[in-house]
Amino acid sequence: MSVYDRNNIFAKILRGEAPCRKVYEDDHALAFHDIFPKAAVHVLVIPKGEYVSFVDFTGTASADAQAGFWRAVDTVARQLGVSEGFRIASHVGPAGGQVVFHFHVHVMSGPRP
Ligand code: 5GP
């Protein structure tokens, strides 16, 4: 497990030091549009805590933080109007294609390229 880097771009977005097109925010999570969308709807949901990846999050976050995060993913899908048809993905580690090392879930809907 790599060490959390507080200078990653999503940490900067969380601290308000970098911009984003916000979709939703609560105590547990922030959701914003992916800067390079790969589907008609492509939103990223990130927890407010410092977790490198899905594995870090599920292994170390409290039950409350985990429940709150997944509730936020569900809320985001509903708010986007895609709750009847969407996909979620999370890349883990370089071998899994992860580029930004703050845990995030991609919420996508619409035809795949
Ligand atoms: P992953 O780590 O899941 O493989 O990919 C990171 C995702 O974050 C990519 O889909 C990329 O387009 C998106 N991304 C990278 N930098 C930024 C940024 O500064 N703002 C936003 N909104 N999305 C970003």
Describe this structure in words.
By secondary structure, the protein is of the alpha+beta class. The protein has one domain: HIT family, subunit A. It is 27% helix and 21% strand. The protein contains 3 helices and 5 strands; from the N terminus they run H-E-E-E-H-H-E-E. Strands 1-2-3-5-4 form a 5-stranded antiparallel beta sheet, covered by helices on one side. The radius of gyration is 13 Å and the shape is globular. It starts with 8 loop residues before the first helix and ends with a strand. The model has no long low-confidence stretch (mean pLDDT 96). Guanosine-5'-monophosphate binds next to strand 2.
Task: Tell me briefly what this model is.
The chain has 113 residues and is an alpha+beta fold.
Write the layout of secondary structure elements.
Layout: H1 9-14, E1 22-25, E2 29-33, E3 41-47, H2 54-60, H3 63-80, E4 87-89, E5 105-109
Antiparallel strand pairs: 1-2, 2-3, 3-5, 4-5
The structure holds guanosine-5'-monophosphate.
Biggest sheet strand order reads: 1-2-3-5-4
CATH arch. level architecture: 2-Layer Sandwich
Largest sheet: 5 strands, antiparallel
Q: CATH topology, which one?
A: HIT family, subunit A
In whole angstroms, the N-to-C terminal distance is 32 Å
CATH superfamily membership, which one?
HIT-like
Q: What radius of gyration results from the CA coordinates? A: 13 Å
- Number of spatially distinct domains: 1
Supply the number of helical segments. 3
The chain-level mean pLDDT equals: 96
Overall CATH class = Alpha Beta
Coarse morphology: globular
Annotation, overall tally of beta strands: 5
- Give the structural class: alpha+beta
What is the percentage of strand-forming residues?
A: 15-25%
